[in-house]
Amino acid sequence: AHQAALAARSKDNLRSPICCILGHVDTGKTKLLDKIRQTNVQEGEAGGITQQIGATYFPGEAIKQKTAVVNPDGKFEIKVPGLLIIDTPGHESFSNLRSRGSSLCNIAILVVDIMHGLEPQTLESMKLLRDRKTPFIVALNKIDRLYGWKKVDNNGFQESLALQSRGVQNEFKNRLEQTKLAFSEQGFNAEVFYENKSMARYVSLVPTSAHTGEGIPDMLKLILQLTQERMVGSLMYLSEVQATVLEVKAIEGFGMTIDVILSNGILREGDRIVVCGVEGAITTNIRALLTPAVMKELRVKSQYVHNKEVKAAMGVKISAPGLEGAIAGSRLLVVGPDDDEEDLEEEVEADLNKLFSRVSTSGRGVSVQASTLGSLEALLDFLKDCKIPVANVGIGPVFKRDVMQCGTMLEKSPDYAVMLCFDVKVDKEAQAYAEENNIKIFTADIIYHLFDSFTKHMEEQLEKKKEESKLLAVFPCVLNTVAVFNKTNPIVVGVDVVDGNLRVGTPIAAVRQSATGGKEVVSLGRVSSIERDHKQIPICKKGQPSVAVKIEMGGHQPTYGRQLEESDTLYSLISRASIDCLKEFYRKEVTNDEWALIIKLKSLFDIN
Ligand code: GDP
């Protein structure tokens, strides 16, 4: 076993790490990828870069050539066989490269536009990377846009920087400092790569330009350095198959196919495989293992090459019967000779069921719908952090039945009659049904935007309820009457506010001794105006000069000299309902003194 362990640790047994590119839209992710794919003209063709399905493979030799400018003495040794970079940048791919809660993406490049700093999707990506504990470096892209930048194509960054004017160097320094600060605000220590002493503690920032190619050699070298330093253990080649479905696509001549990233093990034509589908596990046999044909092979009619077997790490298209309904982000398992097919089916279904079971126990909450397992998981994680409860979970396009399901919330908890849909289409009939029934459907392809829509929706609902409850909310006050100007209909009195604050709209009462010796609450009606020096004011606070208040009542108003005397203290007439209303909608607006007064008034009015 010791021998085997040693052998496994040897270079031959390392597999290629898988790398994802993440970042905000327009930071240059696609352009960077294009630039690294490009062969380096001066150095001659960087051999062996291969286009796979959903990924590009860079063999060690190609990376060696591409990093030569920043590794002149060849001291930096490449120990991994190569690097597999996922072709579709963005967190969609990243979150679908998942297996049992961990990521199959070994390493990531987070692209930040040096002119823009951290943007919403940057933060979203950072959260994903943190949650999945994926090591990453940051490409501070578009350095060629620093004013006055003089380029040297495909140069190492430090050398290029040294050639710049003072002004450019200063602007770079400023932007670098700003970026470091922004990262630290997000809880990451970041340092420009050539000053980073510990890749375990600091995220490396590598300035790049996808246009001039500057800094890209540094970026590639760093990616390998980080992999080799931090994760050789997890890059040991395993015989067990580890694979996930990145995309599900219909292809002419092949029917429904799945694009799979094989991160460990070997897949063979004819293998019996299990993946998760919307209606449960799909078990089928691999009919064809396809990779793209390179130029020379285009004489063969298909754009694909058939492979007898493929070895990790590898992106491959699988054609097999019965793949309709397969879900992106699902694991792919191979049924071995000793495996029980049903066990494996349960295992892949568990990935979906686990997400479906993450609904609030109260049965109250929003409905969420996402396109893939990965994005659904990311969305649920996000909503959990935001403390937004979820009652229903779905995968794929939104149909009427999903909206109807969501509609059950209209009775239970109308605020939650909301669908948060991530990267999915909404069926026309479903949309119409939602509009008719006042069910909100929010769609977005950025998770943050769903949160913003939902927050706005909740604020609107709260505002609406607050408006509706305005008459119910009663702020506490105690008034001494100093003059009676009009005895009734309406009552107009001069008062001093001796406690609390008097507001327009407040219901007023006196508490008198009844004939039988008990308490009698005499309701005077609501304050319809407050005046001082013939000017209307909305509020009179404790201790402020006397005001004249008009109190009106719909029904038969009591009269001074009969049911009331000038010497009666007046109070705002609170109730259980008014207290609850303050607690629900006005908590922030009620001061501690006011709560104390409410407690006094509670006992005065015998409220429990
Ligand atoms: P993505 O949305 O992150 O994939 O961004 P793209 O790669 O599509 O780039 C967005 C825009 O930024 C395009 O117009 C690119 O030409 C431009 N761009 C990308 N990288 C750079 C760069 O390094 N320098 C400059 N000046 N422009 C860039």
Keywords:
608 residues, alpha+beta, 8-stranded mixed sheet, 8-stranded antiparallel sheet, 16 helices, 32 strands, elongated, binds guanosine-5'-diphosphate
The shape, in one word, is elongated
How many individual β-strands? 32
Structural class: alpha+beta
Adjacency order of strands in the biggest sheet: 2-3-4-1-7-8-10-9
| Strand residue content | 25-35%
Approximate helicity band: 25-40%
Q: Low-confidence parts, pLDDT < 50 over ≥5 residues?
A: 4-10, 40-44
**Ligand species:** guanosine-5'-diphosphate
Radius of gyration: 34 Å
N→C terminal distance: 74 Å
How do the strands and helices of this protein lay out in sequence?
Layout: H1 2-9, E1 18-23, H2 29-37, E2 50-51, E3 55-59, H3 60-66, E4 82-86, H4 91-96, E5 98-99, E6 102-103, E7 107-113, H5 120-131, E8 136-141, H6 157-162, H7 166-185, E9 190-192, E10 203-207, H8 216-230, E11 242-251, E12 255-264, E13 266-268, E14 272-277, E15 280-285, E16 288-292, E17 304-307, E18 309-311, E19 314-319, E20 331-334, H9 341-356, E21 366-370, H10 373-385, E22 390-395, H11 400-407, H12 409-412, E23 418-422, H13 428-436, E24 440-444, H14 447-468, E25 477-486, E26 491-503, E27 507-513, E28 519-532, E29 535-536, E30 539-541, E31 547-552, E32 570-572, H15 576-585, H16 592-604
Parallel strand pairs: 1-4, 1-7, 7-8, 8-10, 9-10, 21-22, 21-23, 23-24
Antiparallel strand pairs: 2-3, 3-4, 5-6, 11-12, 11-20, 12-19, 13-18, 14-15, 14-20, 16-17, 16-19, 25-26, 25-32, 26-30, 26-31, 27-28, 27-32, 28-29, 28-31
Helix pairs in contact: 11-13
This protein binds guanosine-5'-diphosphate.
